[in-house]
Design brief:
The chain is an all-alpha fold and 73 residues long. The protein has two helices and no strands.
């Protein structure tokens, strides 16, 4: 049973971090592309990018919490 618990923890954090990792990469790339096209809008684009990255990172934190609950409960 302990082995299955470890596999569940690994899957929870592994699969739970794939989406946010891809999202943060896409957000950063598209923001840099937008700033390159319109440098005057850089502060507005950057603040929106940071907010979106924070929301995406929250999903990874939820996955971490779930994996810790699986491990210790």
């Amino acid at each position: 049973m302990e082995n299955l618990n470890g596999i569940a923890v690994a899957l929870a954090i592994g699969l739970g971090s794939i989406g946010p990792g891809l999202a943060i990469g896409l957000l950063g790339g598209k923001a840099m592309e937008a700033i390159g096209r319109n440098p005057e809008a850089a502060p507005k684009i950057q603040s929106a990018m940071i907010l979106a990255i924070a929301f995406a990172e929250a999903i990874a934190i939820y996955a971490l919490v779930i994996s810790l609950i699986i491990k210790f409960a």
